[in-house]
Amino acid sequence: MSVTTTFDLSLAAGAQAPALEARVGDYIALLKPRVMSLVVFSGIAGMVMAPGTVHPFLALVAVFCIAVGAGAAGAINMWYERDIDAIMQRTKSRPLPMGRIQPADALTFGVVLTILSVGLMGMALNWVAAFWLAFASFFYVFIYTIWLKPRTPQNIVIGGAAGAFPPVIGWAAVTGDVGLPAVIMFLLIFLWTPPHFWALALIRNEDYKRAGIPMLPVVAGAVATRWQMLLYTLALTPVVLAPLWLGMVGWVYAVGAGVLQGLFILSSVQVLREASDRRAWQMFGYSIFYLFAIFALMMADKV
User: Fold this and answer.
1) For the segment 204-254, what is each residue's pLDDT rounded down to a tens digit?
2) Residues 166, 43 share a domain
3) Residue 10: inside a domain, yes or no?
């Protein structure tokens, strides 16, 4: 082999390395890791709040299954919405619209990970937790992504249930059933989702118009959306305080949650009074912190 040939081969090998790294990164992007972090945290909260204990290794397995299951549903969502993602400014740089991953590969990736996460949850923990993990994936892909999102402005209200299942899954992983506290944690995320997501929808309204997605700001207008955000934020108040009434937590949580909820309502009022992207961004950012903080307080009080 000549020196020139060897040099050419080394160049080829060097040129392939960045492509391999990008490919791994693209598959990670399919899992929607930023969304997954909140899903995992709320799933952990469900496990911590559940009565009883589970072996630390099995707890890690449960968290892994929740993370992979949520990521797999996100990958299938990206596969189905690849044409819409190509139109929207927020999503056009995702791996599928950019052509870095083939649609069939993304779908296979999502389906295989879904089967693996559900199967592992069932065999390692219990089949009640596995059922709710499977149902959450089914709900997100078929009920929200395929059925509700392109058809109704209430898509995120009903479809938001998909993101509210992780505490139920975490609770079931420990107990093998679903108790009232798990339902309260489900309702907390369920009612939090519309104002959280509509804050982003207000900012990305033109994106949704171009894509033909009937988000509430597109169909009902910005003013009606802001009123709906305030109503859901207010409706969240008794649910946020319910863990105290049920004896799940003490006054440390109640005081902290009361402050967080008051700021959430104030943020919604500011969005209603000031029609600006700045206020909507502030509420969107705060809503993420809010949910992390609520569950962190809940777990800290329990521990």
Assistant:
1) 999 899 888 999 999 999 999 999 999 999 999 999 999 999 989 999 999
2) yes
3) no
DSSP string for residues in 208-275: HHHHT---HHHHT-HHHHHHHHHHHHHHHHHHHHHHHHTTSS-HHHHHHHHHHHHHHHHHHHHHHHS-
Residues 92 and 201 in one domain: no
Last residue of a domain, one of 177, 211, 246: 177
Going by the DSSP 8-state scheme, the letter that residue 303 receives in this structure is -
Report the amino acid identity of residue 215: M
Domain boundary, last residue among 149, 177, 205: 177
- The parent domain of residue 37 ranges over 26-177
Q: How many CA atoms lie within 13 A of 38 on its CB side?
A: 19
Residue 297 burial (CB count, 10 A)? 21
Q: How far apart are the first and last CA of the chain?
A: 67
Who contacts 17 (Cβ-Cβ below 8 Å, separation ≥6)?
Answer: none
d(CA 244, CA 77): 36
For residue 43, what are the contacts with CB-CB under 8 A and spacing of at least 6?
Answer: 62, 63, 66, 67, 166, 167, 169, 170
- Sequence-distant (6+) residues with CB within 8 A of 124 are 58, 61, 62, 65
The domain that contains 132 carries what CATH number? 1.10.357.140
pTM for this entry: 0.89
pLDDT value of residue 278? 92
Q: Are residues 124 and 196 in the same domain?
A: no
